[in-house]
Design brief:
Elements (H helix, E strand, L loop, with lengths): L21 H30 L8 H7 L3 H29 L3 H28 L19
InterPro entries: SQR/QFR_C/D, SuccDH_FuR_B_TM-su
Main location: membrane
Subcellular location: Membrane
Length: 148
């Protein structure tokens, strides 16, 4: 009785189908977004904690003044989008690794996608529609830098 042992590097999986390799692009995105996020996060921390008066200076007026500049709006939105998509892609990878059933995987990945999409939408709206001095509000409720 003889047994045949396959060569050690024989592929276990069938050959890859034609089309876009989403796993490869997800892997590349994680590396690229990670590098960009490091720059964005350290720039954010540097401007908020080192350049100004530190943590004690961060309040409503600080955020209002910072978001008055389109540069800082786009900086924060880029950080928000990259971080949420980066985290969502990481969670998708975990689901692919550990979820057993195809339906379970689909439900979990759908929930991750929905959460990321809703948070991106709401966060972007907050940054671009933020108004520290809303019209028609009582003067005692407005910050000190607003003209009453």
């Amino acid at each position: 009785m003889s047994q045949t042992i396959e060569a050690p590097r024989t592929p276990v999986r069938p050959a890859r189908k034609k089309g876009v390799n989403w796993e490869k692009w997800g892997w590349i995105y994680m590396r690229a977004s990670g590098v960009i996020l490091v720059v964005l996060i350290f720039g954010h921390l540097f401007m908020n904690l080192i350049v100004g008066d530190g943590v004690k200076a961060i309040d409503f007026a600080f955020v209002g003044g910072k978001w008055a500049s389109p540069f800082w709006q786009w900086w924060d939105v880029a950080m928000l989008w990259l971080a949420l998509i980066h985290g969502g892609n990481g969670m998708r990878t975990i689901v692919n690794d550990y979820a057993r059933g195809k339906m379970t995987r689909g439900i979990l990945k759908g929930a991750i996608f929905a959460a990321v999409a809703i948070l991106i939408l709401l966060g972007t709206l907050v940054v671009f529609t933020f108004d520290p001095c809303p019209v028609g509000q009582p003067a005692d409720l407005l910050p000190s830098f607003c003209a009453a």
